[in-house]
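Sample 3 of the quickstart, ligand 4'-deoxy-4'-aminopyridoxal-5'-phosphate:
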Amino acid sequence: MEPKYLSARSNWIEASPLALIVSKIATLKAKGISVLSLAAGDPDPSLIPREELADIAYDVLKNIPASILYTPTAGIFELRKEISRLTEKYDKIKVDPQNIVVSSGSTIAIDLLIRILLDPGDIVIVENPTYINTLYALKQHGIQVIGVFMDSNGMKIDELEDTVKKLLSQGKKIKLIYTIPTGQNPSGITMSLNRRKHLLEIASQYDILILEDLAYNYIFYEEPPPTIKSMDDEGRVIAVGTLSKAMGTGFRIGWIIASETITKKVIEMKQPIDFCAPAISQYIALEYLRRGLFEKYHLKVLRAYKEKRDILIKSLETHLPKALFTRPSAGMFLMLYLPEDADGQEFAEKLLDKYHVAVVPAGPFHPNKDHPNTLRLNFSRPSVKDIEEAVNRLAKLYHELYH
Ligand code: PMP
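Result:
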């Protein structure tokens, strides 16, 4: 079809670097070449209780006829109740199940919130860098995205306040701040308690909403500070969560926690988009939570990921003693800085072509594409052995190119 038929919106984003890597890996695999991947954002499939999930899937499909039919757009009520229990226990958020909307993963939850809260041209502040799918969703909707840098304590709140003041002095209004305070993607950084409190104060002072993405709040190696939503007494924070990182990314079960007004609008907006989250997944998730599988495997998973994180850090320290990288206390990623004038995209492509190791260039996660010299490395999915070998090869290329 000719490009003239495409909408303006279809040209507002570029192809995702993640999709590019996935298709390159598939091409190599088709040639019989095995790839070591630190590129995923998935849990380790060997740590997911697949036998127990298979039993649940069997029970659900056999015994619950409704599991193959549409559900209410907000999700099945029993699951909303289980999510409210989960979020009270782990996120310290007390929420009525009526104020939870189940979505097909939290990616679409974020898109739905953009649709009901923002108009083209509105300004949203994000951490720099930030989760690429949120960045691309904002761009798709014509939103102006402003990044605020982080340090090891999360978003720099002084820089945030300066940015807000500057924009206000230019007559602009900021509608929303999007943050991933725990185990941030792609940096792995966790925001300190002080910064969380300060962020709430700034949002309150300048009347800005906060969208808190809790994707990694259950994946931690040191207990994270309380969620921002749990400290919010003004109804200023909307939270999105997901079972992807604990139960499996393929189930596509996420949710939104918001006020009555926003919940109602989200449901109205959602119906013509996907009607409801997949019913089969919702019923499986309900049983997974009811049967206590989340709790049963949670600590085991955390111990395994902590070991992998430590191995990744140790391997980087051994093979690239001068390189800078973040040291995550939560999440599934760390961010590695190549030398200042290096290009992460080029590096990632060479690494895959020559050494068959996949990593994600983190330049595109930066709203202004500053810091193209960064890479995102995942440690949850690969085995310990693969992490060690992948870093070994990565370091080889690093020394070939930069010394
Ligand atoms: N938010 C963040 C920060 C993420 O990293 C991810 C997954 N990569 C998501 C949301 C979305 O996860 P899902 O759509 O699978 O729930």
